[in-house]
């Protein structure tokens, strides 16, 4: 059974945004098609970018790739290791740290976050789901992907088809069926009212 996770909003938002949420229960048998994978990555590629520097870098790791298991076992922490192996693919989002002239690109994380955000919206549009995983072991992922010192790993995104919540156990199951909650607009607004 799938919980109802449609966002309750103060004003209408696009259905693809209202329906987006981050499950942990993924269909173990589903493998993303090449078209689905390319569509998601293209959405990230076309994200807004300060001065068009495009500092984001992606590693797409299908469940059929041996690195998928290695990232799950060595690159993820805690109970992420229990549910993430079921995802069809993992997308590692990294950014370049320094510009070609040696200066640090201070806007890199914001730009990479925009790219990651557009990838999850595109996945949702395709009938897929994503879950951003912050509980990662960055050094292990850098080593596994053989990245140089100018690359900073930011997040891993699990992608796939959703599966019934009952596939999970314990705290993961409880989180899967819990209602979605957000701060109210009044709580997050620093100034002004619409």
Question: Mind explaining what this structure looks like?
Answer:
With 194 residues, the protein is α+β, with helices and mostly antiparallel strands. The chain has one domain (37-178): NADH Oxidase (3-Layer(aba) Sandwich). The protein is built from eight helices and four strands. It has helices at residues 15-18, 34-45, 66-75, 80-83, 108-125, 138-145, 170-177, 185-188, and strands at residues 56-62, 89-96, 129-133, 151-160. Strands 1-2-4-3 form a four-stranded antiparallel sheet, with helices on both faces. Helix 2 (34-45) packs antiparallel against helix 5 and helix 3 runs antiparallel to helix 6 (138-145).
Short description:
The chain is built from eight helices and four strands; from the N terminus they run ααβααβαβαβαα.
Blueprint of the fold:
Elements: H1 15-18, H2 34-45, E1 56-62, H3 66-75, H4 80-83, E2 89-96, H5 108-125, E3 129-133, H6 138-145, E4 151-160, H7 170-177, H8 185-188
Antiparallel strand pairs: 1-2, 2-4, 3-4
Helix pairs in contact: 2-5, 3-6
């Amino acid at each position: 059974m799938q919980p109802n996770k449609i966002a309750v909003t103060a004003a209408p938002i696009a259905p693809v945004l209202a329906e987006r949420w981050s499950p942990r229960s993924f269909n173990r048998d589903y493998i993303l098609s090449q078209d689905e994978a390319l569509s998601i990555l293209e959405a990230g590629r076309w994200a807004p970018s300060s001065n068009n520097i495009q500092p984001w870098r992606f590693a797409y790791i299908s469940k059929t790739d041996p690195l998928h298991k290695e990232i799950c076992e060595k690159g993820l922490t805690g109970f992420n290791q229990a549910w993430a192996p079921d995802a069809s693919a993992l997308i590692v989002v990294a950014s370049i740290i320094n510009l070609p002239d040696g200066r640090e690109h201070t806007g890199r994380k914001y730009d990479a976050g925009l790219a990651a955000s557009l990838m999850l919206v595109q996945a949702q549009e395709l009938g897929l789901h994503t879950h951003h995983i912050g509980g990662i072991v960055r050094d292990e992922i850098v080593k596994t992907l053989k990245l140089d010192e100018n690359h900073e790993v930011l997040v891993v995104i699990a992608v796939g088809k959703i599966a019934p919540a009952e596939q999970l156990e314990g705290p993961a199951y409880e989180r899967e069926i819990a209602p979605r909650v957000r701060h109210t607009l009044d709580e997050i607004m620093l100034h002004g009212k619409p």
